[in-house]
Design brief:
binds pyridoxal-5'-phosphate; Aspartate Aminotransferase, domain 2; seven-stranded mixed beta sheet; 14 helices; four-stranded antiparallel beta sheet; Aspartate Aminotransferase, domain 1
């Protein structure tokens, strides 16, 4: 294992040696047929993961670039976008859309809760939106969205469904060929980044468009974008020996390897594993007097945001934990200092998480809190056992 520390922030996530090895392969020219084969395979594997018959785009950038690509290629200046926000990353679509002169409305959930479906229904009945964004899991709150409810509502309104999967893709099923209640009710765009549940270092923006979304791009004609314009990338994604802008060759080696690992495990199995990890971590940490921000029914399988027990200082907690080689993240916005976030996704294993639960208990003891580590470990194992059976 090359990793010296256990990186449990909600992205980047632990990278395994096979992926590091791929990353450090000899760099080839981007038109070298040996690289072109790998790029083609990475694109095919992306299509397989998302089960799309549309087009996928894998470009140098981060998740935010994929968010921008989703918006600028589907919603024109003066057209309307609705954002269903479960926190900080949902909210990011607002300034993004405004930067392109898009009219944007937002439904913001109270942090830790889901947006009320009746409000979504009302909004969609009042206004014709070109597209609606859903953040599959919001990394600030640890709240997961209910696609079974949201996708049909949005599609019946005639809007496109744009799914931000940055902290969900490859952990939760994002099946673009799945019909949600009606053959036309499908997710139109899934966007993601490399560094969360896929388990590659940061550096790739990944996005899939179905045929409806591709047509929406065609109908827009000229758009205020160049690097983000999928029309510039389409020829390359159809034939990766062509050139538009140099692909991040080594990142694509790493991504191709990561997808091999993901597809070998299988998305159904991965989803089960992530659900179990989320439950196990929260159940264990609750015994320490920590409280998850999201109720269990709406909690994300990939990460959790938990408030500290009385008297525990955020900086001391995270500093002491990092001295033990375990890195977790602070909370965002108004929760900063009051809560922390722990990722349990991608290449993370049950034994890594069990180790983290133990070390968190020891740090709490160091900071003067009485906790029962054995009880926490038992809770952790109980939840995981449900997954194994
Ligand atoms: C991390 C994240 C983003 C932003 O991705 P970057 O790679 O940091 O640009 C967007 N949406 C969600 C849900 C995220 O978790």
């Amino acid at each position: 294992m090359k990793n010296q520390e256990l990186l449990l922030v909600p992205g980047p996530t632990p990278v395994v040696d096979a992926i590091y090895d791929a990353l450090s392969s000899e760099t080839r020219g981007h038109t070298d047929p040996r690289f072109v084969e790998v790029f083609k395979n990475a694109l095919l594997q992306t299509k397989e993961l998302l089960k799309t018959d549309g087009e996928v785009f894998v470009v140098a950038g981060s998740g935010t670039l994929a968010m921008e690509m989703a918006i600028v290629n589907t919603v024109g200046r003066g057209e309307k976008l609705l954002v269903i926000s479960h926190g900080y990353f949902g909210d990011r679509f607002l300034p993004l859309a405004k930067a392109f002169g898009i009219e944007v409305d937002v439904l913001q959930a109270e942090w830790g809760k889901q947006v009320d479906l009746t409000l979504v229904e009302q909004k969609l009945a009042e206004t014709q939106y070109k597209a609606v964004t859903i953040t599959h899991a919001d990394t600030s709150t640890g709240v997961v969205s209910d696609l079974e409810q949201l996708v049909p509502l949005i599609k019946q309104s005639g809007a496109l469904v744009i799914l931000d999967g940055v902290v969900a893709t490859a952990a939760l099923d994002e099946n673009m060929s799945k019909s949600y209640g009606h053959p036309d009710n499908k997710i139109d765009i899934v966007l993601t980044g490399s560094q969360k549940a896929i388990g590659v270092p940061p550096g790739l923006a990944i996005i899939a468009f179905n045929q409806t979304a591709l047509e929406a791009r065609n109908e827009l004609g000229v758009i205020p974008a160049y690097y983000s314009d999928i029309h510039n990338w389409l020829p390359i994604m159809k034939d990766p020996s062509k050139y538009f802008a140099t692909p991040p060759v080594n990142m694509i080696y790493a991504y191709n390897e990561a997808l091999k690992i993901v597809l070998e495990e299988g998305i159904e199995q991965r989803e089960k594993r992530h659900v179990a990890f989320g439950r196990a971590v929260r159940s264990a940490l609750k015994t320490y007097g920590m409280t998850p921000l999201a109720a269990e029914e709406v909690a994300a399988p990939t990460l959790s945001c938990l408030s500290y027990p009385e008297g525990i200082d955020d900086i001391s907690f995270r500093t002491n934990l990092s001295k033990r080689g375990i890195i977790v993240a602070g909370a965002l916005a108004h929760l900063a200092g009051k809560a922390f976030r722990i990722g349990h996704m991608g290449n993370t294993t049950a034994s890594m998480l069990e180790h983290a639960v133990r070390e968190i208990g020891e740090v709490l003891q160091e900071l003067g809190k009485q906790v029962n580590i054995d009880e926490a470990i038992n809770k952790f194992k109980e939840e995981l056992a449900l997954f194994v059976n």
